[in-house]
Specification:
single chain, 303 residues, 3-stranded antiparallel β-sheet, 10 helices, disordered C terminus
Length: 303
């Protein structure tokens, strides 16, 4: 293996991990929710609304509803379907990324934070209210790497990945850059919390699959995942500085995670610092809502 492509300095880093919502947090997607609006004559008219509009309209249950009261019909664009050559999620991600890179659209408030996470080779989770399969979310992150990272950033990412594997896994085989990236993406979590398989996992553990509780469930799964990896690395790793940041543009989800950290996770994981960022206003920097645990976690200044 080319030693120049291995960054062994990662061994001295703090352990910082990230959980990202996707829509309106990473990218503003073209995917639309099918929603019906009550008309003056008492009838209902179909509209296709953005995820940002949905967070507001869904609270007005007197005047807005899913088509015929069927939520699956409302979120048909947020599901994978048999026979697709490409998932709606991947297609919309490609369109959104191309517009951002051409300067035709603004990125989401956590776009730069994800870019930095990938460049540094940090562990992360994508936790979205969508219902796609895990593989669709993973492909979208891979597309993000291919489209957004510069050649220099990509080389830095791979050097960091090789460094982590050499320092903590004692793995020094001469794998290709593509193999390193594939291995890395396989170590992260991709949770579409309205996907049927995810709902079944929640129900198997006695949880009610409501959106806010589902994100709490995914949050805990990621923390457990990180702790397992650190335990495999060795006891000394658990004594290092550990921090986890969560960002979401939905204030309901933000409150649910804040409550969950305060009521359960802080006591269960006292050595981990948790930071929650409200990105509901894209015109303003992310608002830090709560901090618990040990040391500081800062997202990139542009989040």
């Amino acid at each position: 293996m080319n030693e120049a492509a291995v960054n062994l300095k990662v061994a001295t880093r703090d352990f910082k991990y990230y959980i990202f919502d996707w829509d309106d947090n990473i990218l503003h997607m073209a995917t639309r929710i099918h929603f019906e609006n009550r008309q003056p004559d008492g009838g209902w008219r179909l509209h296709k609304v953005s995820t940002a509009a949905f967070t507001i309209l869904r609270k007005d249950t007197e005047n807005w509803r899913p088509p015929g009261g069927d939520w699956e019909r409302a979120f048909t664009e947020f599901r994978d379907h048999a026979g697709e050559s490409e998932s709606q999620f991947l297609s919309d991600t490609r369109t959104a990324l191309e517009k951002v890179m051409r300067g035709e659209a603004a990125p989401g408030p956590s776009f730069d934070a994800l870019r930095e996470t990938l460049r540094e080779g940090r562990l992360f989770a994508i936790v979205t209210a969508r219902g796609h399969e895990e593989v669709s979310l993973k492909k979208a992150v891979r597309l993000f790497i291919d489209v957004v990272l510069t050649p220099e950033e990509r080389r830095e990412m791979v050097a960091n990945l090789r460094g982590y594997r050499a320092c903590f896994d004692h793995y020094t085989e001469p794998d290709s850059d593509e193999q390193q990236i594939d291995y890395y993406l396989g170590k992260n979590l991709y949770c579409a919390v309205t996907n049927p398989s995810f709902k079944r996992r929640m129900e198997a553990e006695g949880n009610v699959p409501r959106p806010e509780e589902a994100k709490q469930f995914a949050f805990k799964n990621f923390i457990d995942h990180v702790v397992r990896i650190l335990e495999e690395t060795g006891a000394a790793a658990l004594k290092r500085s550990i921090s986890v940041g969560f960002s979401d543009d939905d204030t309901g989800n933000v409150k649910a995670i804040v409550d969950y950290i305060q009521s359960e996770l802080s006591a269960r994981f006292p050595n981990i610092k948790f930071c929650v960022y409200d990105t509901s206003n894209p015109a303003l920097p992310a608002r830090k809502l709560t901090v618990s645990g040990q040391l500081g976690l800062e997202f990139p200044s542009k989040i």
